[in-house]
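Researcher: I'd like a candidate sequence for this fold, 495 residues long. If you have to choose between options at a position, lean toward the conservative one.
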């Protein structure tokens, strides 16, 4: 093992966002997944990291750059190949397509063709080339990913829970040893101690999101086995709840308290110790806003009279009245024609006027009157149903669940930049359908304003959330999600 650090994670902490709106307003984080994790992976090192499956998932995502940590940073020297069987169990594409897409990131030209041919000659791959990834067993996926990793030259390779699905420790060890001898850094993320004990040359144990041990494999195994022996002495549910309680509490303590700081007991603590000052300030601010809003509403009713249907700000400037439009509409699933131009679903229109039966909508330089049921009315200021984005994502197609972070990164960005980086099957003034992926981007001028994608097969969202209408608009953390139950598709907008 040499002294070159290939992967460094410094003080990494990650917590889920609180699901309840009230907690988010008060600045409360959700459950803590990682706290002050430090990882150093050296050239020619096999680092075994032991933890539960959920913690390993967040460590993998943060280290590979898919998730941004709340605090801390990741530094890399070279490229990273992250492999996890669970990332591909819902992949709808063929094995042949997946291999070529993956290899394009690491190989080119003659090397690419030679590597593809070598992989096709492997029985576990050659016999399943036309099968969809989701139709392969987890054991097959593990062997396929291991074969691919053996032919990719990259500085850091992360294997997540491979031993669980592979069932062939010797084969796994031979591939890891080959990379180790080539000076690469290998990170084994495992829920089982066995592969770490037999393959790794350095050991880290993460318990309840915190590093509990870091050192030699021999000492780490001894420490972990001692923990298991103590845990085996637990006799009932009450003892289990109290077991390891002090360590569990550490993850929720403020970082300003170290392990040697003794917390005040209830009898020692003053009243102020139990008050969250930030909550008091936020509460006072909210109370002030509510009083101010009530006052504005009262004045509006008393002196102005009936308010218009849509929220508008009007200013009288030298006799001219100007209006800032805040209401919009989307073309519905049947499409719409304005001034001879056919507009596809989810094309954005501005609402300039309304009456009991029609909206006057504007597109480009043309205006038209449309019936209320011909478009999807959308007002960003309306109180739409609030929900968690990740919860709604469960009702999207698997390909979106696995790749949404990459594709949504283009929203609110430049259309020109999107077209430089994405290949389209269909591309016109209003929208572009991504080649090979069921995603359609919608444009407003030079801006990518929304992303349309398919819902999950046999979608149960209507029953699960008791949706009554054909189209439902949800307000989520960073924007809005519009669900069309007839077409079973979504449209995602980021504010």
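Model: Candidate sequence:
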């Amino acid at each position: 093992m040499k002294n070159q650090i290939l992967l460094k994670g410094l003080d990494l902490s990650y917590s889920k966002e609180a699901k309840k709106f009230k907690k988010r307003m008060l600045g409360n984080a959700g459950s803590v997944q990682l706290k002050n994790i430090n990882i150093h992976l050296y050239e020619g090192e096999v680092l075994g990291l032991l933890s539960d499956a959920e913690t390993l998932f967040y460590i993998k995502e943060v280290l590979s750059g898919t998730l941004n940590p709340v605090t801390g940073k990741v530094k890399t020297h070279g490229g990273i190949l992250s492999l996890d069987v669970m990332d591909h169990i819902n992949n709808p594409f063929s094995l042949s397509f997946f291999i070529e897409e993956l290899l394009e990131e690491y190989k080119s030209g003659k090397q690419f063709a030679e590597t593809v041919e070598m992989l096709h000659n492997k029985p576990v791959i050659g016999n399943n080339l036309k099968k969809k990834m989701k139709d392969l067993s987890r054991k097959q996926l593990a062997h396929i990913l291991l074969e691919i990793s053996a032919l990719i030259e990259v500085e850091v390779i992360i294997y997540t829970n491979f031993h669980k699905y592979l069932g062939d420790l010797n084969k796994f060890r031979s591939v890891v040893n080959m990379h180790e001898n080539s000076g690469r850094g290998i990170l084994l993320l495992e829920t089982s101690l066995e592969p770490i004990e037999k393959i790794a040359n350095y050991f880290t144990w993460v318990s309840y999101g915190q590093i509990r041990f870091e050192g030699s494999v021999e000492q780490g195994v001894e420490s972990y086995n001692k923990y298991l022996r103590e845990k085996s002495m637990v006799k009932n549910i009450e003892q289990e709840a109290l077991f390891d309680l002090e360590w569990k509490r550490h993850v929720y303590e403020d970082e300003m308290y170290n392990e040697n700081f003794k917390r005040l007991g209830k009898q020692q603590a003053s009243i102020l110790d139990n008050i969250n000052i930030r909550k008091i300030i936020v509460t006072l601010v909210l109370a002030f806003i509510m009083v101010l809003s009530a006052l504005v509403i009262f004045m509006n009713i008393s002196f102005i009279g009936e308010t218009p249907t849509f929220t508008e700000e009007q200013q009288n400037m030298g006799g001219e009245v100007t209006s800032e439009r805040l209401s919009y509409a989307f073309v519905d699933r049947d499409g719409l024609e304005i001034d001879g131009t056919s507009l596809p679903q989810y094309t954005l229109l501005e609402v300039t006027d309304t009456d009991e039966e029609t909206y006057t909508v504007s597109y480009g330089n043309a205006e038209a009157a449309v019936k209320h049921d011909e478009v999807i009315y959308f007002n960003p200021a309306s109180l739409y149903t609030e929900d968690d984005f990740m919860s709604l994502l469960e009702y999207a197609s698997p390909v979106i669940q696995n790749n949404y972070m990459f594709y949504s990164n283009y929203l609110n960005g430049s259309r020109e930049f999107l077209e430089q980086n994405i290949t389209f099957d269909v591309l016109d003034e209003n929208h572009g359908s991504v080649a090979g992926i069921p995603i359609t981007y919608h444009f407003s001028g030079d801006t990518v304003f929304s992303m349309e994608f398919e819902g999950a097969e046999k979608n149960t969202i209507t029953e699960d959330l008791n949706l009554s209408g054909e189209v439902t608009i949800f307000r989520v953390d960073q924007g809005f999600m519009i669900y069309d139950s007839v077409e079973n598709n979504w449209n995602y907008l980021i504010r």
